[in-house]
Each structure stands twice: as C-alpha cells, then as structure tokens.
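$ run holo --ligand "2-(butylsulfanyl)adenosine" --emit tokens
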Amino acid sequence: MYDQDQQRRLFNLSKDLLKTDTGAKVTVGEAKEEVNQLRETIVYHEWKYYVKNDPVISDFEYDHLYKRLEALEEQYPDLITPDSPTQRVSADLTSDFPTVKHLSPMLSLANSYNEDDLNDFDTSIRKLTSLDENAVIEYAVEPKFDGGTIVLVYENDLLVRGATRGNGDEGEEITNNAKVIRSIPLKAEFSKYGLSRVELRGEVVIRKDVFKKMNDQKAAAGETLYANPRNTATGGLRIKDPKEVAQRGLEAFVFQMSYAEDADGNNGTRQFEKHSEIIDMLGNLGFKIPQSARTVVSDVKGVLKFCNNRETNREAYPYEIDGMVVKVNSLVLQEICGATSHHPRWAIAFKFKAKQATTKLLDVEYQVGKIGSITPVAKLEPVQLAGVTVSSVSLHNEDFITSKDIRLGDTVLVERAGDVIPYIVKPMDELRDGSEIIIDFPKTCPINPDSRPYGVELIRTEGEAAWRCPDCVCGAQDLMRMIFHISKDAMNIDGFGGAYIIRFHEMGWLRNMADIYNLDYDQIAELEGFGQKSAANLKKSIDKAKSNPIRRLLHSLSIHHLGKRASVLISERIEHVLDLKEWTIEDYTNIKDIGPVVAENMIEWFANERNVEMLRQMEAYGVNMHQTQEDKPVEVAADAPLVGKTILFTGALQHFSRKEAQKLATLAGAKNISAVSSNLDILVVGEKAGSKLRKAEALGTVQIMTEDEFLALVS
Ligand code: IVH
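-- output --
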C-alpha cells in the first residue's frame, strides 16, 4: 500500500509534526495544511500498527499527532471531514478470513502516562457524572495485556464464534482457531445468569516462559526466531491451520462483556452493578481472568499506587503487559459517561514506560574482551527507553550484524525489557534513503591500531561467533583480564574496581595479573583521591585474596571456555596449580562434564611459558597455589535429605551467613542455584525477602520454607 519512498517521507513528516505542541494556536490557513499532513501521517501509522502489525513510532508519539489533530479540529470545526481519523474507528482489513460484524462495536482506549493524566481522567468522570469531588468513585484496575484482541460470542452456553478485532466494527472470523485455545471454554453456563447470548472481549497472549521455550527450540533447530510474544500471539490467531495454532501456546484472558441478551431478547446486564462483578462471574464460568494483578480501588490515588506497583513488578509477571487499564467500576456511571467515536470515556489505559523506541545508528565502535574477542558496539542517537537514556548497545558479533542487515545510518528499533540489556530488534529498512552504509567487519585488530607497525589479523574458530585477536601486543587484553581477575566472580577483591585497574594500568604499574600483588602502596597513597587509609584498605583486600582457594584463581585466569564449574572440578584433583603443566587431554576429559575444547585450551595455556612465569611471579608475591580445604570435594551421603533438590536462600538470614547456609545445603545433597525459575525446588526465606519470594509465589511450584524449617530438614 505504501512504497519505501512514501514511508520515509511520512516518517520524517511525522517527526516534524511532533515538534509542534498539541495546544499551539495557528491561523486557519496554517491549520488547513497541518490538518492535512496530520491526517496523512496518522492514517499511515494506523496502517502500520493495525494492518501490518509493525509500528514505526511509539504510542506516545501517535497520541501526540492524534491529539494535535483533535485540537485543530476543535478550533476550526469547518475543517472536519468525514474521512478524518478522528471521525472513524476503522482501518483496512486483511481479508484472508471471512468478515463478521461484532455485536457491539469495539473502540480503542485513550492513554495516560502519569499522575496528572489520571487526575484529569478522574476530573472528567466527575464532570460527566455530575459527582462532586467528595463522592466515591470506584475504579477497576487490570493489566493491559499486550497480545491480540479476541471477540467471543456464546449462544445458549456454547461458543459459536471467535473473531479478531479488525476495524472495531467488523473482524475476521477465526472460530476454529479460538476453539483450539484451551483457556477459552467451549461451553460456559451463562444460562445460570439468565443470559442466552453474550459477546466477550479478551486478549490472546503467550506466557513469557513458554515463548522463550519455543524460541529455544527454534534456535536449536536452526530456524528463524519469533520476534516477540505479541506478534507471535496476533500472528497465531490468523494461522490457517488450527492444528498449528494449537501448538503456539496461546492463552486468552477475558476483560469485558460487551453484549448480553436474556431469553426474551432484552439487555441482560441489568442484574450486574459493577464491571468487577462481571469479571468475577466470567472467572466462575471458567474463563481466564487476571487474579492478583487486578483490583478495585475507591480513589485515583489508589489507582496510581496499584499502577506503579504493577509497573515495578512488570518483569516478574508471567505475561507481557504494556500498562494497566482503569475502568469506572459502576455500570450505571459507565453508561452516563458514554463514548467518543474513538474511545469510551469511562476507561483509560495507563501506559508503562516504553520498552521499545526507534533511533539512529550513528557509528560502530569495537571493544576487546579478556580472551581477545572483538565485540562491535553500536553508538546511537540517545533515546529514552523504559526510563533510562540509551546511547550505546552491543551488536554482539559479525553474524548478528549481517543476519539483521544492520547498516550505518539506519533507523533501528531498540528494546529494553526489565533487567535485560538493551538490544537492537531490527533496522527499519522501509526508512532507508540509500545513504546507509553496509558495515564492513574489520579484518585486522581494530583496538589501538596505531600501537603496532602492522595490523594483527583476526581469527575466527569454527563453531564460534566471535572474531578474536590472537596476538595482543597493545596490552588491551591484559587489561580486560585484570579487570575480570579482581571481580566478584573471580578473585573477589573487595574495594578494588575496574576504574582503579585502568588507572594503575595507565600509570604503568600493572602489566599483567601478577603485578596486582606487587603494588607499591606508598605510591598509591600519594594519588589524588587516595591517602594512607584507602591505600591500607586496598592492601588488606589484596592480601586477603592471596589465600583464596585455587578454584577461584583458576577461574580468574581467563582461559577460554574455562568456567566456574570446570575450575571447581579441576581444583578438586590437583595439589598445586602448576601440576597442570603435566596434565594430558585425557586427564581433563576423564573428568565428567569437561570436554575436549576446555582440555585443549588448558593445555595450550599451560604450555605458554609467559603464563607459567606469571603464575610463578604470583606465587612469589604470596598468592596461594595449593589446594585448600575449600577446594576439596564435599562428600554427600546417598541418603542425605536433599539429594537431587535445587535450593536458593533469599532475604536476611538470622541463623547463619548465606555461605554457611549454602554449605549446609550442599552437605545435605542439594544444589545451590541463583535464580527463581521452574527449576527451583526450595526457596528458604529470611527477613525482608523481596522479589525472589514474590516470583516463587507467583510460580506456585516452589516449596517455600523458613530458616527453622530448613534447619529441621537438614539436621
Ligand atoms: S478494555 C473499549 N481491558 O487494549 C475498549 N482492553 O484498545 C475496551 N487490552 O486492543 C478495552 N488488555 O485488546 C481492555 N484489560 C483490558 C485490556 C485491553 C488489553 C487491549 C484490547 C485493545 C486495546 C484497547
């Protein structure tokens, strides 16, 4: 419908239009032109959103354009035309399935973003209903599911029709697909409530963990991954083969009864006073409704509090939601409020901070890792994402760039979900103007190219995604290794951060890991920002690390593929770290869980005289190289009480330190893991347990116990 040129022009035009304040006053002549431009861009963005499922601007930006158009039309009503986006609720349909008319037209929702917007909403409700500011107005607040709308019709208790939202008046008939979604009852006893015909609205979604599993399987099979749960759900509804639909893990929540008729053909909603009663009824009839994620509150303060709380817990919720929906709970008041042509006046969406945004890719820089991997990093025009400014994201490796065809100068879609590091979802190739440049991955090491007379050629081992610099002469890799060496996961040197390493490296005091144990603390005390006390503290931390168990030391060396677990397994079997000089491939691969790749890397590392010399230096500076008690394997009795169980401790423990607790658990045969997931068997909660406890409760599969209960179990 739109070609690339048109799309680029409309995208740029919308960015220009967004610069105007929604309330700005203009002359009728100016308004005429702006109104035309607004209509043209809004129609385009609606097409992208509703028809193509591929929006190029945020909801916030779309709302801005829409509000501006409304404001101009309000100022100059003569400019209103019947085909203005404000005068209709429709968008084009993709007509692969037969079209059906909904029993009652489905509008959109107005959006709110903050406390002021919610207060304005409350004020407008009071105005519409002539209630003064002291009157109590109940609001039902529920998740705004980010999936695909479904409209269900039941006649004489049987599901007779399922449809998509379509343009709001008419949708596509997808009854057979609705029937394979197991959370949609085929039979529901509406007759118990005297209802013979009802129309329900709901949202088809995919659980986040189910989505992840599906994608993991696709990845393992080498297939193209699904982009996100939302597209997978909306796409899933419109698959031609219901058998295939059934395999998509779709679920449906219901959130509204939009039509009800009793046996005599009269309005059947009269028996209900509140929206929340209807949702309760639907829950009772076997429909899926949000449980603890919905509430009823008696004022707008309560609305805000609940919305903020849900936004904080957004990531822990098993389904993708992009906000909350706030609804006047009283059905009588809803009727009094009525609707505009676009949205009901009694409801509003409270949108969470956007997780996706578009921005420009300005440049690509390269970083080197501790084993020499070269990582490309995209430098972006700064953009706001879920509350933080993002200006730089990893491009991972060459394949990531080529498989997504990301080019310099592209407008890219960036996403940031919860704790997940921001990443580029895709370039918006429809916005290209030909000036974009294909990214040429460097053939020689791009880090400090001036520090050597020739370029070091990068290598890429078969089966690995990264290009690596095999012969670092500039010190950049040693620097990264030192930063890892002191980190929590490795030698865990308290109070010593990467910034100090970089500083000392620049001063020429640190060339490799051994130098860390031979620092001149008098010199450090002289440094700006230091002093005797901080220098002494640093010395104390470093001295303490010298007696670390050797499993920490091994892991801290940055040997390619040597992880924490393999370090433990190897440390259990040696007296002294340098024993490994004599180890053969078989010595390694005889250990269950250690493969030939790690074995070869270990052998190569210990065959390098520079590395061995570095270890000898460390030992001379007092770093422990002998197996310690902590390195020795823990003997677990076959009948220990927690054999085969996974366990996690959270909150402030009263009886023991976390380490001691974990040791007790290990002795009892349990495996300590670090995150709450369906793999977790037992969660032991101390005081002030937070998100881990909530997540475990939400999962419902985890055994939750107190410290005392745990002690009773293991003793
Ligand atoms: S109420 C009159 N409640 O958001 C509109 N909508 O335009 C009544 N949505 O695509 C909608 N969760 O599918 C409502 N709890 C909820 C919702 C919800 C998601 C979707 C709906 C539609 C859009 C609203």
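-- notes --
The longest strand covers residues 250-262.
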